[in-house]
Amino acid sequence: MPHYGFVIDLKRCYGCYSCQVTCKAANHTPRGIDWARCVPSEIGSFPTALRQMIPLICQQCREPACMTVCPTGATTQDENGIVHVDKDLCMGCKYCMMACPYGARQTVEEWTTYFPDAEGDLDPYESHAKAEWERKYGYGVATKCDYCMDRVKEGRLPACVESCPAKARHFGDLDDPESEVSILIKRERGFQLNPEFGTDPSCYYLPPR
User: Which tens digit of pLDDT belongs to each residue from 175-184?
Assistant: First the structure.
C-alpha cells in the first residue's frame, strides 16, 4: 500500500492563494474555514530579509497526536496513512483540535454565508455547497483536509496540486524510493515542519531561496 504524502517547494511558491481557493471550492468549506492556508513569513533580517509564503495543510502525521487524544475513536488512520474523522462518532469535544500542533483541524457550528449583506435565500451554488457540507461533514464536529482522497481514488491529484500555477506542490508515495516525492526529498533536502513535535509529518518542504 502506498503511504501518501506531499512535497511543497518553497522556492516556487509565490503566494497566489490558488491552493487555498481551490481547496474551498473542491470541499465546499464555508466562510472562515480553510483546510489549505498560505501564511506569510519573513526570512533573514534587514536589509536582506525576504518575504516567504508557507503553505499549510494537514500534515497527515504517521504518529498523529489528534488520534491519540480522541475519546470516541472518531479519528482513524487508513492503510495509506491518511487521517480521517467519522462525523457520526465525533462528539465535538475539540480535544483533537487542541492536540494538533499544526492547527489543521477546524469545526463549524453553523453555515456562514459568503454574502452576509445579500437579501433572500442563498444563491444556487452556495445552496449546493451548504448541502454537500452537511452531507459529508455536518456541524459541531472536527473537520480537516484528507488530501482529496475521493479524487485520488479516481486517479486524480488533490485539488490544490492540480491548481498550483507554479508547480510548487507534488503528491505521491513516500514509501516508494523511486517516486517523485521521495526523489525530491532526498535530492533537495526536504524537511518536515517542527519535527521536534514527534508526530512524523507526511508533508515535506523544499528549502526556500
Answer: 999 999 999 9
